[in-house]
Structure prediction request, 104 residues.
Amino acid sequence: MQSNSVVLAALVTALSSPAAAQVPGANLARNLAATCTTCHGTTGVSEGGMVSLAGQSKSDLVRKLQDFKTGRKPATIMNQLAKGYTDAQIELIAGWFAAQRSSK
Prediction:
């Protein structure tokens, strides 16, 4: 019985640590990607003149977003938007779009 209390206390301590607070929520990637959907479609499949993001490789999407963020790739809007994301957020966004099914 006492060992259960020790395990429970350790678990509570671990879950209340700063490292545990940094674990993204289950919907964080989707919520971050939602900021892209006006131009790139709700699941990354563009209906207009913008490139579709769905199904592209995560590494390609990360590279493209980092290129916008650093100014290596000039743009009118994307470099301003990309500057607002941390590297970790870019990884989440790219992973979410990479996991979406491309219908085109």
Observations:
- Residues 24-98 form a domain with the Cytochrome Bc1 Complex; Chain D, domain 2 fold (CATH 1.10.760.10).
- Confidence is low (pLDDT under 50) at residues 1-21.
